[in-house]
Please model this.
Amino acid sequence: MRAVTDTNVVISGLLWQGPSRRILDLARAGTLDLFTSPALLIELEDVLGRRKFQRRLESAGVDPQDLVFGYAALARLVIPTEKPAVVLEDPDDDEVLACALSARAEVIVSGDRHLRGLGSFRGIRIVTAAELLA
Model:
């Protein structure tokens, strides 16, 4: 299955146990094909660099760049050619949609209320990590 994981799912999977971690484990096992884009990797590094994650990163003995490089090695990089303007409340979410279009993804995995509120986008299902695993 071809999937794009939103930044909130990636961070949850990298830093904690639970459904988001299992999504990343499926990708590591080759059961799930993950896709990302340059914009999503930049966002991942930016969010991981926020103060609220500092203690968690220190206790794990990693820095944001290490995690971004590791995730970039796990996911396939696509360069979106189209960026739809769909999520007016949070235009950064449009980067997830653009990545999914370019990747020809079957699913977007996200906990973001704006994306989840769409339900689907151009035939691409939008689900939580727990829903994907169910």
Observations:
- The first strand starts at residue 2 and ends at 5.
